[in-house]
Description:
This protein is an alpha/beta fold. It has nine helices and eleven strands. Helix 5 (185-198) crosses helix 6. The termini are far apart.
Amino acid sequence: MHMSTNKKQLALIGLLTILGCKTAQQNRNYQAAFPAFSAEAHRGGRGLMPENTILAMYNAMKYERVTTLEMDTHISKDNQVVVTHDDYLSPTFMLTPQGKDIPKSDSKKYAIYQMDYSLIRSFDIGTKPNPGFPTQTKIKTYLPLLAELIDSVQLEIKRKNLKPYFYNIETKCDVAGDGITNPAPDVFVKLLMEVIQSKNITPFVVIQSFDKRTIQLIHQKYPKVKTSFLVETKQPYERYMAELGYKPFILSPKSSFVDAELVQKAHADGVKVIPWTANTPEEIARLKALKVDGIISDFPNLL
């Protein structure tokens, strides 16, 4: 008995749907091998290129030893995941859509969370020199959506037949900013994970935060996703773990906090140590001698 054309089409669609579901399930279950040493370009390497931009990520990918692209995310008014660090567009190194300086009196005028992405994108990052990084290339560019950045990086990997890169993605939020400069943690996590899962890069992602609430949620709702606890106050290792309430994949302290005792205790507990932000050859050498598991640096060329 012969199937009709419509029945054949329906059968084919059904088969493709099953295969698609299996592929999605395989992607969710796949665990990528984390780099033996995670050499991370901080904000894409802001010592060399405008921070948190696609151009910065491309530049970091030129350095053979770089394994991981580090970046920050905020949520816009229209619920888009934007790659940017500051709560507000910065007068220090950004220009208005008209190419004008943002007056310092307006330093709290342009909150990412209070702006639609179309407006955020129209501001210029890269033309105005960043006084903190005089070696940064001056080039006009913009703050991208996380989805666009991932697409661009993955296309570059395919186009140049490069190794896979890990993404270390920070959630920029805190309790004081809830409803003002960031949404509630559950909303942030939902929007962020929707992008990551839609791009099928989950095995190559680490979610990091100073705000323990977001990574606690990741740990609870997405237990296979790697998390990193960023810390900026010096405490004993045990206190960090007690504060967080679970053992993260990574503990990420300020580089000056890292000593042999911290590294030994973390490793004994099965936790990796990846400090931020080491920007001199001397500090990088000191940390490597302590057997850290990676380093976050503004200068990927030094790694």
